[in-house]
Design goal:
The chain is α/β, with parallel strands linked by helices. It has 15 helices and 10 strands. Helix content is about 40%, strand content about 20%. The strands form 2 sheets. Strands 6-7-8-3-9-10 form a 6-stranded mixed β-sheet, sandwiched between helices.
Amino acid sequence: MTSWSNDPELRVDHLTMRFGGLTAIGDLSFEAGRKQITALIGPNGAGKTTVFNCITGFYKPTEGMITLRHPDGQEFLLERMADFRITQHAKVARTFQNIRLFGGMTVLENLMVAQHNELMRASGFTVAGLLGSRHFKAREHEAVETAKYWLEKIGLTDRADDPAGDLPYGAQRRLEIARAMCTGPRLLCLDEPAAGLNPRESEELNKLLISIRDDHGMAILLIEHDMSVVMGISDHIVVLDYGRKISDGTPSFVKNDPAVIRAYLGVDDEEEAADTPKVATPLTRAEVRQDKISVPPPPVFKLPGEAEAPPARPAGAKPVATSASQAKPAQKAPAKKGAVPAKKTAAKKAAKKGGRK
């Protein structure tokens, strides 16, 4: 049994997602281990983001189960929960392919917004906050300290009061991950966090994700096309192609799997022809006429009292007379050369007799 199967944080069983007649995900099963980074990779259109949308409640699966189990043994069936409850109770956080920060708010305020639910409960839904209760002030102080911790973690403490929209692209990516961590998740889902990053920014991202896994015991589910990131930090890789799992294992195993190489790089025409089963082609009309296959004659149907039709003659045979009226008269044998016709001989003999008289 693999390490991610021993104590999985997330278990996906026979997940299927259909959109009308299109099957985006077909019978997918995998586990994401606790305190591990699980990468979900595959060519464009393989269904990776659809899996994320099913896990986080944006889509309701057509079939299958998605089970999240906390360290205390509490289990959540995510396919049965509303999307906001998946975040609030099951503690699942995610980022998106496109950055979705509040660009007009400061960096610190973006991290405070992520703790909005806890602050609202502490404020008694604004009443205690307006009165300035000690419980609300203490909770607000904790929220600010959490935000400061993550600002230091991502190296943006000196830009806490700057608008988030003014940050460089790589810094915005890290801020989005920090905001997701401020919600206190047990499962962190990252959808292409390295998209658009240069090599230096990708290296900083790798260090941040490894720190989140090791220092916070976080289970991370990662969608990524940058193989340097995937192979550098992943403990477990699941490969999808056309909505189905084609490989599942460690980075070294997946990297050398022929099915993965075929999905990413394709195959030669000769290999594809060798793998394609041969199908017998139907014979043409000309081949049937050449007696390559015997074809029984079509059945003949006749009405009551109707004369029986003559049998079909084979190709090339001469027609045979079926009655006396259709028979041709017999031809006379040709006369020999020099022979005198019988009628002329009789006339000559008669002329001689007349002359004698």
